[in-house]
Fold:
Amino acid sequence: RARSNNVSAVVGVSQYILGRHLEYGYFNNVPIKRVIHNARDPQSIRLDSVPPARTDGVVRVGFIGRFERVKGLELLLEVFHEINLPNAELWIAGACKGDYGAMLQAKASSAKVRFLGHVSPHEFYPLVDFVVVPSLWNENCSMVVIEALAFGKPVISSRLGGTPEIIRDRENGFLFDTNKPNELAAAVRSLASDEDLRVRMSAAAANSAEPFTNMNKWINQYIELYSTLAP
Structure:
């Protein structure tokens, strides 16, 4: 803690993570404290990918990420099965390895749940209608949230960590309490059953992603900080 005060500036990738360090007594006497959120280069995720034509009338709920307990996929599977939407499928992207992955696949015995394996972001996001990020831990600045919004996909996420700094509840997505699965269920049900809501939130999602995909702005924030510190 004492040595952390010897630096000239500190940057947090979210207000949440910067605040947590300050709460624990780190960087308290540092003169410059900044929040510069993570950013994603549109070219690196091929944001200009052409989405495939959709004519099946099925609403696809998406999850992409590591298969770890803290990612909340088990919670999502339980809620998805419970609400049992007739017109919805859950598409899951990620490497399914080990006993935990096998357990998840066993829980997903329905034909309405598809495990896609490893899929690149530019291939995955155009396939789904909205994305769920049900993390049970504090994501500092989730790149999945940023990528999904950039592709115009509303995001349903747990109300933890730095995610509430990116998702505007009921505008470009929904936030829910991990201790209240009914909130997750209600959000999934709302987006899956209301096409007009999906259209409105999709437009809001794409617009809200601009600060997180503007690489020049992101770089300039660091240049300005370094310039301030330069002798």
Q: What stands out?
A: Strands lie at 9-12, 32-35, 59-64, 88-93, 113-117, 130-133, 155-158, 173-176. The chain has a mean pLDDT of 94. DSSP finds nine helices and eight strands in the chain.
